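Recap from last week: sequence in, structure out.
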Amino acid sequence: MDFDKESQQRILRVAADKNEGRPTEELDERIAGVLELHPEFAPIWEEGEMTSMPREINGMIVNPFVHTVLHVIIDRQLQLGDPEYVVAAYKRLTDQGTESHEALHAIIAVFADLHFASTRRGGQFDSLDYESQINGLPYKTS
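Predicted C-alpha cells:
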C-alpha cells in the first residue's frame, strides 16, 4: 500500500463497505481492521479527499489517511513475518505487557520517521537503520 490517490480511494471504499456491511477482500480486511482500531476516524471517512488533511484528533495532529496506510504496512509486515525483526519486536513488546495497539504504534513511529526522512532526502529506505531502531525499542523494566 502506498501514500497515493489509489490507496486513499481504497480506504474510503472500505470505510463505506464497512458502514454498509458489504464483504471485503484480503487487503481490504486489513484496512477494515485498522478502521476498527481507530473509531475516532469514522466520521472523517465521509469527507472524501479531505481525509488526507492533517487535523487535531484527541489532542494530537493526525493525518487519518497516512496513519491508516502506515498501520496496513506494519500489519502486512507482521502477517508475512518479513522483516523478522519487526515480528520479534512486536512479540517482545506485547509479551512484556505493552498493549497490542500501542506496540503497533511504536513500530509505526519508527517506520514512519525513516520512511518520510528518506522521502525528503530523495533516498532509499534504510533497512539496516530500521532494524537497529526496531531492535532498540525500549524494554519495560518492572
